[in-house]
Amino acid sequence: MSKYLKPRKKYNPPNEKVGEIIQKIVKWYFKPEYIGLDNLAEDKPALYVSNHTLLGLTDGPLYMGKLLYEKEIYLRPLVDKMQRHIPIWRKLINDFGGVVASKKNCKKLMEQGQHILVFPGGTNEAFKNEGEEYQLIWKERFGFVKLAIESGYPIIPISGLGGDDLYDIILDKDHIMASFIGKWLKNTGIADKYFRGGESIPPLVSGLGGTFLPKPKKIYYHFGNPIPTEQYNGDTSKETLETIRMQVELDIYKGMLEMIELKKKEGFKNQSRFWKIVKHYEKKIK
Q1: For residue 64, is pLDDT > 60?
Q2: Spatial separation of the C-alpha atoms in residues 248 and 227, rounded to whole Å
Q3: What global pTM score does this model have?
Q4: Domain co-membership, 248 together with 274
């Protein structure tokens, strides 16, 4: 197993000077706004559950430093195992406390009383198709809810808004898989072996001036109220798992709606779609 991204307890957070430099760059380029930081506490470990925006580049890195240096919360992100094979990047993720996403690793971190960050949508949600902006694509994933209940961990929903506007999608994974390149990847078995049948293929995107640099758009993050799990006393029945997961999804979409009010001045238009989604979840929970 790679020496990188293991759930060791004794991680030293990044050097404060390095963190300050990163935060200054982030603040200058994206002008991030953070809502609901009062809902977080260093002495109350929680499972932070977030949506993934396009490519996932601003999911986590833009607020992990904020939480570390202002709230003394050292988030331990659960990341895709493919990231431990990427030179330089794997070292960076490792230094920031990243751990390979698995039930075993998550449980170990909970036993250590760590603050944990998880993205149920994984790379499939980060490498989204055109038209899937700000949608939760979690399939039938309930593992994070089950682990939270078993360990009595509260869940804190995080909503990210703005990340899907940093790039224009030229070719998404469906288009790539339908092309002759995709067919070759499928026929040779490469797609199944390395790209989960194609869902882990990143889209071809265009950023600032047609480059890979993200557009300098304002990013918003909303930290919702903690969702307690202790009252379920370890009950991980299907009904309980579905109820809690729907509540997490609903709170993430509600967080997006709250931030949309702030983003209206930038011409953001998708309010009606979000209202429909929220109403849909509210009906299911009732």
Answers
A1: yes
A2: 8
A3: 0.89
A4: yes
